[in-house]
Amino acid sequence: MRPFTYERARSADEALALHDGDTHYLGGGTNLVDLMRLGVERPAKLVDVTLLPYDRIEEHGGGLLIGAAVRNSDLAADRTVRERYPVLAEAVLAGASGQIRNQATVGGNLLQRTRCSYFQNVTKPCNKRDPGSGCPAREGEHHNLAILGYTPHCVATHPSDMSVALAVLDASVRVHGRSGERGVRLDEFYRLPGDDPSRDTTLDPGDLVTGIQVPPLGMASRYRKVRERASFAFALVSIAASLDVADGTVRDCRVALGGVAHRPWRARRAEEMLRGAPATEESYLRAAQAEMEAAQPLRDNGFKVQLATNLIVRTLSELALSEQAPSKPGDGS
Length: 333
Fold this sequence. Notes:
alpha+beta; 4-stranded antiparallel sheet; 333 residues; 12 helices; 5-stranded antiparallel sheet; globular; 30% helix
């Protein structure tokens, strides 16, 4: 591990002032410290931001403001989150292990690196780690890598379950930067790889994530994750979905997929097809197939196309049934 200096910030402005050159902010550290041990990340300085006052979940504009320092386990256990945004609670509980959720923060979850095994192995070339060195995953081990939105430069997938749920919730990220405070819609926060996969987000150097703003939802929602083992595994494919059905017709729906692209993949084409369509499995299937027309599977991950299709149909069908079921006292769905 490369030697580094350590500073502790007591305000967002102080954190920005301490951020110079090759500096990383340190929160829970569950991803950053692992990558430092592997020699993938080699910061010259760490700025500890754990003392900053961003560890609360608050009502905000009819929705929620979730501080960047909130622990993942606290987010999943929050009563308001569980009752009004079950898709978010389910997504957080599907990620990592209980021990990691107790340590990891919401901001760190957002900012964990999009990665594959070649990125984490410093003996192998990787355009994300060393631009211009190549992407061996395209011809190598890629069964759990991207089928949508990738380029010849990188086929890695974003690992965050939480971010998939936030995508379907139309969340925005609150950022404290050198030009002041701003909000960044999640759709604009993450990047596809393009010709520079070394950058996962649109953040500027020194930008500090302070929270996540989640607007009201008002629809039934659900998160489902398909993985190769029961816990502590990245998604083969995951889905966050919300659905509003009235008189047998889809009034509104949102669908986001994980495990298929460099960032959470918002299924806009499927959503457009479903609004105003009959709330039937046939409608869900046509919409899912239309969304998957853009997929370009690699040699060993073509199974993800059918898996994603099936997952969309099953999840929307279950949500439609939950919409039709009579509510129970205390039911927060």
